[in-house]
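User: Fold this, then the next.

Assistant: Folding the first:
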Amino acid sequence: MTEARRDADVRAIVDTTFQAFTELFADRFGRDARELSGSASPLRSPKSPPPH
């Protein structure tokens, strides 16, 4: 395998991994931010007591 080919493969792996983590964190923290702002339905009502 040539160095140029290896570099392209490594770059593709890094780009794919970065994209996957970006989507994961955007989904997770975006959902948390929407719940905190009240723009998404929380799993439980804000007025209900916390689970025991």
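Now the next one, as you asked:
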Amino acid sequence: MKSDSGQAEKTVKSESGTAAANPGQATPAPADNIYFMVQVAAMPKNRELTQSQLKGLEPISRIEDGERIKYASGKFVLYDDALKHRRTLTGRYPDAFVIAVRSGKIMPLKEAIEQQKR
């Protein structure tokens, strides 16, 4: 799907029906609708990861981005909570990193952090 600017839109789909009840996990939507997640993998759409490969990452989200699917763990209102979650995943996913999502689309992390400070 293309936006008015011609860029492919990125949408988030949750793999689990409920969010984990972990401290810092987002449940109510923040006023600006920005969440932080930890991206653990990106794959071509024709090579999706299996449930067993994603075990232990709940809640996991699939973010469709053009011809790729990005997999992200957790859903946090606070950037610092997402950083803490990333540290718990680096043993299994050493290249994991924090991303920002607003209204189901990936946004620049720096912009999200700046908006959170307001």
